[in-house]
Give the backbone structure.
Amino acid sequence: MSPSSSTRTIPATSQTPRHVAIIMDGNGRWATQRHLPRTAGHIRGVHAVRRVVEACGRRGVEYLTLFAFSSENWRRPAQEVSLLMRLFVRTLEREVDRLVAQGVRLRVVGDLGAFDDKLRGLIKSAEERTAGQSALTLTIAANYGGRWDVLQAMRALLTAHPELAAQPEQIDENALDPWLAMSYAPEPDLFIRTGGEQRISNFLIWQLAYTELYFTDRYWPDFRADDVDQAFAWYRGRERRFGRTSAQLASPT
Ligand code: FPP
């Protein structure tokens, strides 16, 4: 069982979220507002990634998960998809030393089989080069979808334990958890979506069960350390009940 399953235990909580998951939305609109091509917004989005990784590291966040490319983003114009891939490659090539200097371990989750050999090789080497770091685990979700994750976990579980197909009642959360793409991390405490939309868009649908959801109109390229602080201040004001009542929280027995 994962150490902090929100449905089977009451996870420990703290003033600073241990795990922050972000949908970085609004790059296209940021660029369009400035009469720039949408891709300019993605390029500026990488600057925001740098700022937010640093801000989260300084504030003691242990896991930061960023949704860089969803399973559904392939539906975008080919030119935009291609720019996003190139940006991903370039960022991996350029940023690894900085990540190591900041004590950041990089992991990439998603259906990586859809990427070309060069990108897959860079991902593997960046993961290996940062594997010894432990201050902050930065996960990039790329060609990721929450439904994909649940399905691949179920398939992997049944491949490893074919006998379970004949005893489906034996399949519980404990059995599935280790096969999920982010089994190494606790569930997110705080979810942030920039860009004004209020939806989860097939992000970590299993893991967001009891996550606090924060939405801001700020476009991702404009997101700064101050905005991280505002989101964390909002988070500190939340009462995390995990199914219990307020009265129970006030006088735990
Ligand atoms: C959503 O904005 C953003 C994306 C689909 C891509 C996010 C990618 C980056 C921030 C850069 C690459 C990241 C890494 C980690 C290398 P949108 O295009 O949907 O914006 P819109 O809603 O305004 O159109």
Summary: Residues 24-29, 42, 45-46, 49, 66, 68, 73, 84, 87-88, 91, 140, 195, 220 surround farnesyl diphosphate (CB under 6 Å). The chain has one domain: 19-233. The mean pLDDT is 93. Residues 19-233 form a domain with the Undecaprenyl pyrophosphate synthetase fold (CATH 3.40.1180.10).
